[in-house]
Amino acid sequence: MEFIKIILTSVGSIIALFFSTKIIGNKQMSELSMFDYINGITIGSIAAEMATSLDGKFYYPLTAIVIYTVIMWFISYLTEKNIKLRRFFTGRSIVLMQSGKIYQKNFKTSKIDINDFLVQCRINGFFTLDDVDTAILEQNGKISFLPKVQARPVNVQDMNIAAKQEKLSFTVVLDGHIMEENLKLSGNNKKWLENELQKQKIGNVKDVFIALCDGNNTLSVYKKTDDSPKNDPFQ
């Protein structure tokens, strides 16, 4: 009898965990932020408790999963609407190295050891720091690298091509909100942004999902849409 009860509670916990993940979102299956990691292990622990509950009170952990799912969904909803809350829960990217200069203070802030950083450099194909222009610790714990122009896969020096160092793009609009600090860092202002949006026949910044300003001062705009891909190979 207890064996059958274990089977039933295990199946029930899997079903509850599946629907919980569907409601919260499938970030659990991709690279996790700190918030997503805490979320995943907590719901997983509750589901395990439910699966091994033999006293007949499996509805206690089931109720906990439902409550936790609602709370996590609500927090996810708030972070989508508020950039400050998003940064609080998911963190923000940190520049570890820029223009060949290492920022030791940011290493301490992000708790990154220089030896671990060098390992990540080698994993990404940089066996000398002289080939790295910019390194950024992303919110999911991964480090992104921007190589110096002469260290790209096709070496422009060997081809005798005069090339300029590529610059980082600035996110100037995110979820319909103007990122004023980034806009200023890009060397532009709201008037410039409005003019650029009008050129692309966008009258309201609220209609913009994300807009990026590159090193050539070119604005790339991606509008909000509820459309689905016409030819989605993953359906």
Short description:
The chain is of the alpha+beta class and 235 residues long.
Name the beta content range.
Answer: 15-25%
Radius of gyration from the CA trace?
A: 23 Å
Q: How many domain modules?
A: 3
Q: What's the total number of strands?
A: 8
Largest beta sheet: strand ordering: 2-1-3-4
> What is the tally of helical segments?
8
Biggest pleated sheet: 4 strands, antiparallel
Helix coverage percent: 40-55%
Write down the overall geometry: extended
Which runs of at least 5 residues are low in confidence (pLDDT < 50)? 26-30
* Arithmetic mean of pLDDT: 78
Question: SSE string, helix = H, strand = E?
Answer: HHHHEEHHEEEEHHEE
Task: Give the structural class.
Answer: alpha+beta
Taking the alpha carbons of the first and last residues, their distance comes to 41 Å
Structure notes:
The model is unreliable at 26-30 (pLDDT under 50). The longest helix has 23 residues, at 2-24. Helix 2 runs antiparallel to helix 3 (59-81) and helix 3 (59-81) packs across helix 4. The two termini are 41 Å apart. A hairpin with a 2-residue loop joins strand 5 (170-174) and strand 6 (177-178). The protein folds into three domains: 2-89, no CATH class; 93-151, bsu07140 like domains (CRO Repressor, 2-Layer Sandwich); 170-223, bsu07140 like domains (CRO Repressor), CATH 3.30.240.20. It has a four-stranded antiparallel beta sheet. It is built from eight helices and eight strands, in the order H-H-H-H-E-E-H-H-E-E-E-E-H-H-E-E. With 235 residues, it is α+β, with helices and mostly antiparallel strands.
